[in-house]
Design a protein that fits this description.
Blueprint lengths: L1 H27 L3 H16 L4 H12 L4 E2 H8 L3 H14 L2 E6 L2 E8 L3 H30 L7 H27 L2 H16 L1
Antiparallel strand pairs: 1-3, 2-3
Helix pairs in contact: 2-3, 3-5, 4-5, 6-7
Length: 198
């Protein structure tokens, strides 16, 4: 029995190791199409103010059918392991990447959210919090602190009120869209597309 038990344990361990090793090979050998997508996503990331490596890691995880450990991500994209760790933490704060555990492997693996609509809703929410909200507060403070005795105060107030009104409208639109289920948002966009075609 001990012999059989030992044999089973060895076979089970071999299968587990083989599975992990095979997964590494699959993701290390990216196709030309996958490389094109990852490189483009990295380029678009820089245009959106996001680190290129952060965007490329997200693209890789989005395309990967399985969660990947940081070591495989670093090897596949030819980037430093420390850079991968920093980038993954950034993606986790956005809520579009999470750590998972894989049976038979003590390392943390990472996977991307696959629902594109929910993913972009999270991205928009984060960008609003980081960019729109601080700008709204700044405009409110500026309007409250304008000295009517200063030269050009009326014109400055007019310009700032116009900008503040725009950011308030964008915030209201965001809040309304946020309350709608994802399916409803998709239907509204499809309706808008059909109306434009008419």
């Amino acid at each position: 029995m001990k012999c059989n038990g030992l044999h089973f344990a060895i076979v089970e361990k071999f299968v587990c190791v083989y599975s992990v090793f095979t997964e590494r090979i699959v993701m290390a050998e990216l196709t030309g199409l996958q490389k094109q997508y990852i490189l483009h996503w990295g380029e678009m990331g820089t245009r959106w103010g996001i680190n290129r490596t952060v965007a490329q890691i997200h693209a890789l995880l989005y395309l990967s059918p399985k969660a990947l450990p940081a070591e495989d991500i670093a090897k596949t994209l030819s980037v430093a392991r420390s850079n991968v760790s920093t980038s993954i933490r950034e993606l986790e704060t956005w809520g579009i990447v999470r750590a998972v555990h894989v049976l038979g492997d003590r390392r943390e693996h990472y996977e991307s959210m696959k629902d594109v609509w929910e993913m972009f809703r999270l991205v928009i929410e984060q960008r609003k919090r980081r960019e729109i909200d601080p700008t709204r507060e700044m405009l409110r403070r500026c309007l409250a602190e304008i000295d009517p005795k200063e030269a050009g105060a009326d014109y400055t107030r007019e310009r700032l009120e116009g900008m503040a009104g725009f950011f308030e409208a964008v915030t209201e639109l965001h809040d309304q869209m946020k309350r709608l289920p994802t399916g409803t948002v998709r239907k509204l966009l499809r309706m808008g597309a059909r109306m434009r075609k008419k």
